[in-house]
């Protein structure tokens, strides 16, 4: 049944998603790549089949610590690498930075259960 679950199939340089909602794409896939929350504001409620390049789904390397210089022989990304921004733009989507409220769970106290 279409829309009952998302499936991803990886080829050597692309990941094909089947029956994926924009909410799942934003909350799961893009939030993982961006390493920060991504909220779906497309208003699209359907399920879609789409492909993204593997290079766009890789997390970028962390920035060097303050004061550290990058070695001259540091490898540059291959020319076929595509950013997540470019990949989404090709699909007619875009990521926009924004501030907003997010629901957060705070645990302020924990106790071990009693023996009985």
Query: Can you write the helix and strand succession as a string?
Result: EEHEHH
Oligomer: single chain
Ends distance: 47 Å
Structural class: alpha+beta
Helix content percent band: 10-25%
Total beta strand runs: 3
Residue windows where pLDDT falls under 50 for at least 5 positions: none
Describe the structure.
- The protein is of the alpha+beta class and 116 residues long.
- The protein has one domain (1-60, 82-116).
- Helices cover 21% and strands 16% of the residues.
- The chain is built from three helices and three strands.
- It has helices spanning 22-34, 54-57, 84-90, and strands at residues 7-10, 14-21, 47-53.
- It has a three-stranded antiparallel β-sheet with strand order 1-2-3.
- It is extended, with a radius of gyration of 19 Å.
Provide a quick synopsis of the model.
The protein is of the alpha+beta class and 116 residues long. It has three helices and three strands. It has helices at residues 22-34, 54-57, 84-90; strands at residues 7-10, 14-21, 47-53.
Lay out the secondary structure.
Elements: E1 7-10, E2 14-21, H1 22-34, E3 47-53, H2 54-57, H3 84-90
Antiparallel strand pairs: 1-2, 2-3
List keywords for this structure.
3 helices; three-stranded antiparallel sheet; single chain; extended; alpha+beta; 116 residues; 16% strand; 3 strands
